[in-house]
Amino acid sequence: MKMTVECDCGAVQGTVESKHLKGYRAVCLCDDCQAYAHSIGHADMLDANGGTDIIPVMPSHYTFHKGQEKLQCLRLHSKGMYRWYTSCCKSPLGNTMAEQSMPYIGVPVRAFQKNYSNEQIESEFGPVRERMQARFAKGTLPPKAQQKVSLGFMLRVIKFIGFAKLSGSGKPSPFFKVDGNPISEPKVLSKTERDALVGL
């Protein structure tokens, strides 16, 4: 099923193919994800523990139909992930590795919530499999939250990446040009800028 992705103001719209995506959904509680949410003014994407609900998507299964030119990229530090959001309303629409050769896009569940209920999202992508990086979390954590990343979930991610490569689903990516460069030049935060966001 093709699931609609849309920014808050509707200027950027796309679709994600949900096939083969069950079993990989996770909530990341790391300080980078928390800092990112605050940097773009969308702390509403964080849960009570400071976690971001993320669904891994294969690059070729993610397509923008409107407003792709409005996508912008942020890095929390020089070796950080590429974090993609819109210039129009700062909506977060995906995280990628810096190299296109790593076929992974982490799409915040928030990107689907404008068009679907939480029940519909869970029906297509499955439940959260892991809450990771809990050492950065706030408040009282749910049971089984992982201080880092469990071996079991890491193996799931390896399986996901392996399938994407073998099936040819790693390219094209909506966030990279044919030559492998990002479609928008990443802005890299200084240490001072990032440190000011941590712990908000």
Description:
This protein has 200 residues and is an alpha+beta fold. It has helices at 31-39, 118-125, 151-167, 191-197, and strands at residues 2-6, 13-17, 26-28, 52-57, 62-66, 71-75, 82-86, 92-96, 105-108, 130-132, 187-188. A hairpin with a 5-residue loop joins strand 7 and strand 8 (92-96). The chain is globular and about 40 Å long.
Concise structural overview:
This protein has 200 residues and is of the alpha+beta class. The protein has helices spanning 31-39, 118-125, 151-167, 191-197; strands at 2-6, 13-17, 26-28, 52-57, 62-66, 71-75, 82-86, 92-96, 105-108, 130-132, 187-188.
Distance between the termini: 37 Å
Number of strands: 11
| Fraction of helical residues | 10-25%
Determine the CATH topology. Metal Binding Protein, Guanine Nucleotide Exchange Factor, Chain A
Fraction in beta strands: 15-25%
- Quaternary arrangement of the chains shown? single chain
Question: Any idea what the CATH architecture is?
Answer: Beta Complex
Low-confidence stretches: none
Shape: globular
The ordered string of helix (H) and strand (E) elements is EEEHEEEEEEHEHEH
Rg over CA atoms, rounded to whole Å, is 16 Å
Mean pLDDT reading: 94
Question: How does the SSE layout of this entry go?
Answer:
Elements: E1 2-6, E2 13-17, E3 26-28, H1 31-39, E4 52-57, E5 62-66, E6 71-75, E7 82-86, E8 92-96, E9 105-108, H2 118-125, E10 130-132, H3 151-167, E11 187-188, H4 191-197
Parallel strand pairs: 3-10, 6-11
Antiparallel strand pairs: 1-2, 2-5, 3-4, 4-9, 6-7, 7-8, 8-9
